[in-house]
Amino acid sequence: MAFDPLPPSFVGRALGCIRGGRAVFAGLDFAVAPGDALVLLGPNGSGKSSLLRVMAGLLRPTVGAVLWGETPAAEDAEAHAARTHYVGHHDAVKPVLSVAENLRFWARLHEPHLPTATRAVDGALDAFGLAHLRDVPGKMLSAGQKRRTNLARLLAAPSPLWLLDEPTTALDKASIKVLERVMADHRAAGGMVVLSTHQDVDLPGCRELHLDRFTPGGDEWEDEE
Amino acid sequence: MSRFLEVIRRDLRLALRQGSDSIMVVTFFVLTVVLFPFGIGPESGVLERVAAGVLWVTALLASLLSLDRLFQADYEDGSLELLVLTPTPLEVVVVAKICAHWLTTGLPLLVAAPVLAVLLHMNADGFVTLLLTMLVGTPILSLIGGIGAALVLGARRGGVLLSLLILPLYVPVLIFGVGAIDAAVGARDATPHLLILSGLLAAALPLGPWATAAALRQALE
User: Fold this and answer.
1) Which of A117, A179, B106, B114 pairs as cysteine with A107 (C-beta 3.0–4.6 A)?
2) In this protein, which residues make up the domain named ABC transporter (chain A) (predicted)?
3) Nearest of A222, A88, A39 to residue B78 by alpha carbon
């Protein structure tokens, strides 16, 4: 699962975001090179989710731009979607579809070639310890199993850029270890990971971005607290 | 193209396993039409006169019933975000979802309509035209309805708001649908009405998904 020999890096320039009339962050720059991991840190409401949604293209930044190499990601939304996996707060698991059916649907949207997609889905189920649950309908899954089904999308269709919004929520220790290994393999193959977390996730050589430093007027806000 | 079919297949499978929506829509259609003979009396002359209007108005309301679930379930469980982030234009995904919606709600209405027409003593000359108007008209209902369903995402009491938004837009379909059937029953030429209805479909086919996709993007911001 190797990507282009020298894929371009993923860059944000002078990003600013206003949500509900409040400036969440401003003047934010980031850069993720192939094989890199970026961890977003900050208290609740500091804009971690907003930044990830901006990176995914779900949210337009109020100012600034997200670039893939030299080209703005917003210029070709489909190409950006093809190279991105976004894991948000919701698990997008349909209650009446089985684990394998849920996963195959998302895999087929990224990888229309059926045999490739089927093989990748089987591999992803094995990697996240879901093989014995493959025919279990989504409504029978626990929160942690749903989360693992959602995370299995990462492997069910290869994409270089992973955007993970608190991916460890509801996961047990063993599953967090699995996720850490999957992310390490992904980075070794030249992939990029951006994740936000409140828990300790072991990402060797990752860089940290403290979002509270980009909160406009953050100091006064802290004084009020 | 395979992504388009994949979305249709998934929505049909969901509809088949959950089952409730299609059955609910057809049952509502049948029950409401059956109420009319009780309400306005069984004289065949009166029923025959109102048959086309009753069938079309009831079909509009029945199709409205199923609309608020069109995007709501995907919106709530996060699937919609991922559908927006697929390497396909969102408009294509929307057309696929609307096709699936028509197959699960519009098509059953089309099948039920002639049976109910018999119940209302509709003149036999109007049956073919009734089917034709339903065939052209019900996809327009799904296409226009998709815009409303996307606009009310995340709103409280979305269902009521949806009917206020969408029912006025359904009026042209109603006018020309009923007009065509009345013309056929009165031994006049129904073609102009059918052509206008087809024109409405031709306009709704690109405009509906385009507006729906824009509303969905807005809902997710």
Assistant:
1) A117
2) 6-223
3) A88
Phi first, then psi: give them for residue A16, nearest 5 degrees.
-140, 150
- Tens digit of each residue's pLDDT, chain B (221 residues): 788 888 999 999 988 888 777 888 899 999 999 999 898 888 888 888 888 999 999 999 999 988 888 898 899 888 999 999 888 889 999 999 999 999 999 999 999 999 999 988 888 888 999 999 999 999 999 999 999 999 998 787 778 889 899 999 999 999 999 999 999 988 888 899 999 999 999 999 999 999 999 999 988 88
Structural domains in chain B (count): 1
What is the interface size between A and B, counted as CB pairs within 8 Å?
A: 68
Interface test with chain A among B85, B97, B221, by most A beta carbons within 10 Å: B85
Give domain limits for chain A: 35-57+79-214
Q: Which residue type, as a one-letter code, is found at position A78?
A: E
Question: Which residue from B112, B114, B115, B102 is spatially nearest to B181, judged by alpha carbons?
Answer: B114
User: Cα(B45)–Cα(B31) distance, rounded to whole angstroms?
Assistant: 21
Chain A residues 111-170 within an 8 A CB cutoff of chain B: 112
The two structure tokens encoding residue B42 = 């069984």
Q: Which domain holds residue B171?
A: 2-220
Q: What is the value of pTM for the model shown?
A: 0.88
d(CA A190, CA A1): 9
d(CA B215, CA B217): 5
In sequence order, the 6+-apart residues with CB closer than 8 A to the CB of A5 are none
